[in-house]
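Q: Entry one of two.
A:
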Amino acid sequence: MKKLFTLAVIATAMLFAQSANAQVKFGLKGGVNLTNISVSDGDALKDNIKNQTGFFIGPTAVVTLPVVGLGLDASLLYDQRTAKIKGGIYDTGNNLLDEDKVKMQQVVIPINVRYGVGLGTLASGFIFAGPQFGFNVGDKKTEVIKNIFEWEREAVNFSLNFGVGVMALNHLQVTANYNLALGKQNELGLNSATWTNLTRPKVKANAWQIGVAYLF
């Protein structure tokens, strides 16, 4: 966790160190997470997890570097993603288990390199990519469906962003990107107090993201 946090701080510092010779704009960003749950291959529980819609919001900054078309951006966002867990199995009393929702809450720091092409004085388009550092701010472990399942979250996670965007009137920005999780983010298992044959597949909460930002 300390290593990831240090990398995030260093990368952010490098971004804003460019501001002496670059144009910097600050603003507010928000949008929608279209969660795309990925479960360990071959695990029987993967069909029990269904995608849900979440959101993200927070301050952002865009740096235009003194190189034609090249820039950077960084944000500090509250990011929420949700998933629906279906029972799909029977408990010890032969009752079909119900369904429940699990919420993933984190503070994320995406840092992207971007390359833009002007489309005239009114708008420009750009592509971007970069790392994202996530820090869990919700419960570490959640019991789901009357204590049948356990959903456990990692304290820190790492992912990558790839996307495209449009800037209008030098203030309004619209982006679309895919956030690809790297490494383990979550684990889903059967509650050890109820079940003896435990399975703990790794669960990744990837997401398609649509964002809108206003830069001052």
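Q: Entry two of two.
A:
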Amino acid sequence: MTYLDPDRTTLAVLGSPIAHSLSPALHAAAYDVLGVPFRYGRHEVASGGLDAFVAGLGREWRGLSLTMPLKREVLPLLDRTTPLVDELGVANTIAFRTEGDTVLRHGANTDVEGLVRPVEALGHLPGEAAILGGGATAASALTAAVRLGAALVRVFVRDTAKTGQLVDLAVRLGVTLEVFPLTELPGTRHGFVVSTLPGGAADDLELLPSGPDAVLFDVAYEPWPTAAASRWGADGGRVLNGLDMLTEQAIGQIRFFLTGDQDELLPREAEVRKAMRAAVGLPETITA
């Protein structure tokens, strides 16, 4: 296949902690199907260390996947950004592009599509949504909920004083946002919940589905299943996990790394998706 900058063959995921990341397995499976000679690793980069890491990269580097705590810290390092990055103030992807004698850093956000596509695959279009947590992934979750049809979103966070960016985003998106302390999560049943909390952090919360179509999207995947996900499923609700999100956001990243357009389908994309899901132990298709 033809792709941009064929001499750039090195990629990696950065974050802290990062040893548990399954992104290398996902990307390796995809590049094997696509027949491209890319190498994808992982590097521990803590808060405050991204600038120095990026500055030290050679011309063999094609791109980076970013996880916490780097999704906001990357913004000042980017030369160009997609409209979604500008809207959210969050990027999880850097692609290095050679333009003349200059190397430009292009930033993208594929977390939103990583959340939207699995829910769409279930045919679930929520009118309301609850989001647990207020970090960078919560901004993507808010945008995803709106794209899925939510007109009202309730956010439950540990510190309500730190939700200014989410409130501003909700205004731009034209969605009604209600903010509550996490301790005030109601015992009522929910139709659609996205938990952006670390693995196990939602285990003591009362999360119950409103019916068999209700979806809990728990972005954790290690350890899995979480107690919250197990209770939700045992009560008849449908559960998506962080590996569903990780796979779909990685597909968006691979599109962006190869062509510069995260919306341009990959060659043999259905086969690529199947191989990626198998690489992390997921069934061939999204089911819940």
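A: Comment on entry two: The mean pLDDT is 94. The longest helix spans residues 242-259.
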